[in-house]
Amino acid sequence: MCSSPADAVSRQEFDAIFAAVRTWGRWAPADRGAWNRVTPEHVRRAAGLVRSGTAVPLGLPWDTRPGPDNPRPALHHMTDLGDAEAPEPATYKDFLAVDYHGKAVSHLDALSHVAYEGRLYDGREAREAVGSTGAGFGSVAALGPLVTKGVLLDLPAVLGVDWLEPGHPVRARDVVAAERALGVTIDEGCAVLLRSGRFRRSRELGAWDSGAASAGFHVDAVPLLAERAIALLGGDGDSDLRPSPVEGVHSPVHALAVAAMGVPLLDNLDLEALSGACAGAEHYEFMIVVAPLNVPGGTGSPVGPVAVL
């Protein structure tokens, strides 16, 4: 089922949701946002979810190939081939570069990445906080690593399909139904990962412009996630339903999660192996480890998160 006029949300309704889920002024340091929720007790709880010790990588391969979902491919160049005349041992070096905010790189969005009506999280003026030298507030360097309980909302598994078609909205009622079907509970400090089956679809049918059409959360799911006090939101897309159901707001879930709630986002995770591992274990909760690069002033970071079952 793709998005329809029935899914539309007015700008006035969206602004009311933004105000309702906003957590400005709640935490110090503010630029860690909802990651302030995660305490050592949350980490111990996450470690208690480990049963088999199976570690499942969630990051995509570094993609240097152009395509409809990768208009700015990553770079990978060899810089030292270690010729035979060099002193032993020979060395081999390479150079990596990427414009990671997009649809092709697994990455984390820090709190400096998204502003709504000119304001970052906590009400900071975006023009003052983010400039040519980077972000003075909400930098990814302020976040540090996160270890917490992860929950996989595997919607294709719940619905008995291979994938959700682009434009399929995941609403609050779908989140509740998925919890029930998968035997999971979204609670304080959780990382919530939505599997739409994007990469299974692209591997079988070919890549498409997921910036124009993708399955994702409808904005009516966000108040529920806010009520559950999550610390991180992510998925195999960028969490947003596309086309956007909110006229004039191209990424409403980004605005609500990052700018209103202070919840960083994980975009473009490969959740196919995790889906299989969770199905095999009959267990859709796990420990997740996210360690973004320590980039002062960075608006985010490429990441390779790991789920441990």
Description:
This protein is α/β, with parallel strands linked by helices and 309 residues long. It contains nine helices and 15 strands. It has a nine-stranded mixed β-sheet with strand order 1-15-13-7-9-11-12-4-14, sandwiched between helices. It has a two-stranded antiparallel sheet with strand order 2-3. The protein has a two-stranded antiparallel ribbon with strand order 5-6. Helix 8 links the parallel strand 11 and strand 12. Helix 1 packs parallel to helix 8.
Secondary-structure map with pairings?
Blueprint (H helix, E strand, L loop, with lengths): L10 H11 L18 H8 L7 E3 L17 E6 L12 E5 L9 E3 L16 H4 E2 L2 E2 L10 E9 H5 L9 E2 L1 H11 L8 E5 L2 H8 L10 E2 L4 H6 L4 E4 L16 H9 L4 E3 L4 H10 L3 E6 L9 E3 L3 E3 L1
Helix pairs in contact: 1-8
What would you say about this model in short?
The chain is α/β, with parallel strands linked by helices and 309 residues long. The chain has 9 helices and 15 strands. It has one domain: 3-Layer(bba) Sandwich (Glucose Oxidase, domain 1), CATH 3.50.30.50.
State the strand order across the main sheet.
Answer: 1-15-13-7-9-11-12-4-14
User: How many helices does DSSP assign?
Assistant: 9
The rounded Rg comes to: 19 Å
The multimeric state of the shown protein is: single chain
What is CATH's topology name? Glucose Oxidase, domain 1
What is the N-to-C order of secondary-structure elements (H for helix, E for strand)? HHEEEEHEEEHEHEHEHEHEHEEE
N→C terminal distance: 32 Å
Count of spatially separate domains: 1
| Mean pLDDT score | 95
Fraction of residues in H or I helices: 10-25%
Q: Count of DSSP E strands? A: 15
Taking pLDDT < 50 over at least 5 consecutive residues as the criterion, the unreliable ranges are: none
Structural class: alpha/beta
Q: Biggest sheet, in brief?
A: 9 strands, mixed
In percent, how much strand structure appears in the residues?
15-25%
Shape: globular
- Write out the CATH superfamily name: Putative cyclase
Q: What would CATH call the class?
A: Alpha Beta
